[in-house]
């Protein structure tokens, strides 16, 4: 049985399957339409519209007004070939039916690109987190509490976390549904949504599962891309100096993920099998500095191992020591060490030897990293009463505060071209650098010290503890996290 209705903005339409109504949103030159096949449980939508991006959406939308925690699942297929590769078919949640409304959606593009898109606040530019799965057979969007999550299913057919999520609190009633945008104001596109399922989600009853996502973000567009996602705890990516792979730690080991590949490879570091998230790659891309606590006293020390794996060579005799920086000439390591109850910054020759203390101020000094020209060591210090970004000469002289913000700022990383600094910002009331927090990656211009938000995410400890810039200074790698109920990891 088919139910067909044409869009009539401002006028009531009969119910369309599980949806209450459908209409064009924003400005379209060609009215959209919707058709429901109750036997096949499929919806066919046609839509025009110039785009669903920037500060406004122009598209056709079939919707239902809901509240609470909900999920929408569907298989999506475009009808016909050709058309704009950026035409979109979406599962969407939005606060209102205004074109510039706050909104979050899982969008499947004509090219196969699939992403979590979001606009917050109303009228703001849209941003996205791109999935590493192209043209998934099934997609799902979940709204749980203040967060929206994306799920995708590949050829195996099982829905898995896409690694794309965003904090997106909604007030009162809101709209959930399916939509189509032609990405061409003069065109009309058609998409079929099948096996559509709209659920009111009950309160989670099982334990939560941590999902980690290795992402990259463009500093020009702020668009994010998922490189790797797993129901596991991993941290702290380094980007290789040849741009070909990322290194991160998981379960006391180091892993290497070639860009574009789906699974990481283990880097051999035996007998050091309790590596933490303080590790990094030498300037010549041949060695890896690691921090490991496999020794008898279980305190972290710094070691060097070949980048492809091998037997580590111990560098720091004293403990605990946590690596953070490698001088541009490859001769010196900068690290954080606790000595006599004080955390300060030290330097030591990469060949080994005596350590040199560089800071003596009260409070924690951490995260030392050399500038690309070797003229400065940047670090974070709480000597002012809360954590801020500082710098000093490599011999420890001329210590000076770089910026002053209300937030607690950690782990400064300078781009290879010396033009930018990225750092991790916690809310003013957060002490230390814990995980499981709403944090921001902030980008500072080295020319005028102006800052802007590069990404907002759920993370903290493990997100960007160590250098993670791409060698061309255009992107950054980081880790975000999701805490999902078991029910969300056992979907069909």
Mean pLDDT: 95
Can you tell me the CATH class of the largest domain? Mainly Beta
Largest sheet, in brief, is: 10 strands, mixed
How many DSSP helices? 0
- Biggest sheet strand order reads 2-7-16-9-10-11-12-19-18-40
Overall geometry:
elongated
Work out the number of β strands.
40
Supply the helix-strand structural class: mainly beta
Supply Rg.
25 Å
CA(first)-CA(last) distance: 26 Å
- What is the CATH superfamily of the largest domain? TolB, C-terminal domain
Q: Give the low-confidence spans.
A: 1-12
Percent range for β-strand residues: over 45%
Helix residue percentage: under 10%
Overall domain count: 2
Detailed description of the structure:
By secondary structure, this protein is mainly beta. The chain has 2 domains: 2-203, Sandwich (Jelly Rolls); 235-475, Neuraminidase (6 Propeller). It contains no helices and 40 strands. The protein has strands at 2-6, 21-25, 33-37, 42-47, 52-53, 56-57, 59-66, 70-78, 88-94, 103-109, 114-119, 127-130, 138-144, 147-153, 159-167, 174-181, 189-200, 208-218, 224-230, 234-239, 245-250, 253-258, 265-267, 280-281, 287-292, 301-306, 313-314, 321-326, 332-339, 342-349, 356-357, 365-370, 377-381, 388-392, 400-401, 408-414, 420-426, 437-445, 451-459, 475-485. The chain has a 10-stranded mixed beta sheet with strand order 2-7-16-9-10-11-12-19-18-40, with no helix packed on it. Strands 1-3-4-17-8-13-14-15 form an 8-stranded antiparallel beta sheet, with no helix packed on it. A 4-stranded antiparallel beta sheet has the order 20-21-22-23, with no helix packed on it. It is elongated. The two termini are 26 Å apart. Residues 1-12 have low confidence and may be disordered.
């Amino acid at each position: 049985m088919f139910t067909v209705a044409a869009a009539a903005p401002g006028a009531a339409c009969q119910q369309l399957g599980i949806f209450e109504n459908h209409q064009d949103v924003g400005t379209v030159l060609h009215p959209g339409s919707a058709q429901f096949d109750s036997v096949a449980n499929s919806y066919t939508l046609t839509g025009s519209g110039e785009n669903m991006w920037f500060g406004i959406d122009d598209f056709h939308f079939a919707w239902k007004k809901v509240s609470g925690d909900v999920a929408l699942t569907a298989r999506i297929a475009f009808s016909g070939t050709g058309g704009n590769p950026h035409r979109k078919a979406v599962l969407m949640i939005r606060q209102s039916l205004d074109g510039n409304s706050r909104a979050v959606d899982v969008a499947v593009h004509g090219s196969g690109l699939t992403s979590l898109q979001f606009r917050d606040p109303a009228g703001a530019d849209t941003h996205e987190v791109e999935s590493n799965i192209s043209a998934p057979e099934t997609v799902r969007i979940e709204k749980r509490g203040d967060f929206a999550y994306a799920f995708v299913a590949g050829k195996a057919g099982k829905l898995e976390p896409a690694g794309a999520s965003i904090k997106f609190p909604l007030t009162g009633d809101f709209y959930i549904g399916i939509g189509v945008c032609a990405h061409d104001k003069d065109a009309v596109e058609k998409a079929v949504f099948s096996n559509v399922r709209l659920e009111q989600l009950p309160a989670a009853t099982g334990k939560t599962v941590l999902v980690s996502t290795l992402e990259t973000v463009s500093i020009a567009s702020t668009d994010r891309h998922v490189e790797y996602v797993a129901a596991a705890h991993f941290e702290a990516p380094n980007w290789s100096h040849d741009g070909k792979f990322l290194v991160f730690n998981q379960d006391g080991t180091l892993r290497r993920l070639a860009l574009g590949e789906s699974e990481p490879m283990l880097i051999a570091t035996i007998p050091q099998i309790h590596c933490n998230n303080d590790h990094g790659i030498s300037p010549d891309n041949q060695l890896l500095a690691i921090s490991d606590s496999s020794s008898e006293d279980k305190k972290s020390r710094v070691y060097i191992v070949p980048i492809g794996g091998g037997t580590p060579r111990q560098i720091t005799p004293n403990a605990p020591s946590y690596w953070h920086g490698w001088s541009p000439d490859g001769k010196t390591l900068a690290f954080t060490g606790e000595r006599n109850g004080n955390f300060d910054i030290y330097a030591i020759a990469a060949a080994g030897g005596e350590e040199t203390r560089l800071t003596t101020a009260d409070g924690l000094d951490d995260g030392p990293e050399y500038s690309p020209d070797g003229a400065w060591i940047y670090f974070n210090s709480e000597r002012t009463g809360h954590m801020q970004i500082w710098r000093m000469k490599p011999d420890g002289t001329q210590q000076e505060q770089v910026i002053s913000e209300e937030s607690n700022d950690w782990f400064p990383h300078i781009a290879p071209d010396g033009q930018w600094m990225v750092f991790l910002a916690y809310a003013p009331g957060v002490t230390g650098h814990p995980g499981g927090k709403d944090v921001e990656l902030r980008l500072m211009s080295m020319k005028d010290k102006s800052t802007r938000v590069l990404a907002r995410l759920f993370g903290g400890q493990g997100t960007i503890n160590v250098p993670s810039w791409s060698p061309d200074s255009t992107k950054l790698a980081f880790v975000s996290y999701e805490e999902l109920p078991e029910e969300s990891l056992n979907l069909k």
